[in-house]
Amino acid sequence: MSEVKDVLDNFRFETFVDVHSNIFAEYLSSVIAELSKENSEYRSIEERIEELYKEYPKVMEALDTEKPSDLSEQECKALIEVLELRNRLSDMQQEAIYFRGCYDSVGYLKKAGIL
């Protein structure tokens, strides 16, 4: 146990964010970009959102502008679906980032000689 304490006392731990804070947003974007390539459910949700935008152009306008929008009942339903799907994408992105952090943590521990 004292060997582990010695390693910890002598190890200068810098997180990825500490060292690369200027590119952290890019790093997160790259993790998220992989989702579309590797996760078929994520890709299906993106495709469904695009279908809704094509079928109901006013839905995209309602999300992209700060002006009031007059939506039909169908467009309102489509807007609700888009928002729900975007929330699912966000949840999936956060999960991917979380697990990438776990993966990186194991790498740090191995590099430090703790694992």
TrEMBL record:
<protein>
    <recommendedName>
        <fullName>DUF6664 domain-containing protein</fullName>
    </recommendedName>
</protein>
<dbReference type="Pfam" id="PF20369">
    <property type="entry name" value="DUF6664"/>
</dbReference>
<dbReference type="InterPro" id="IPR046605">
    <property type="entry name" value="DUF6664"/>
</dbReference>
<feature type="domain" description="DUF6664">
    <location>
        <begin position="11"/>
        <end position="115"/>
    </location>
</feature>
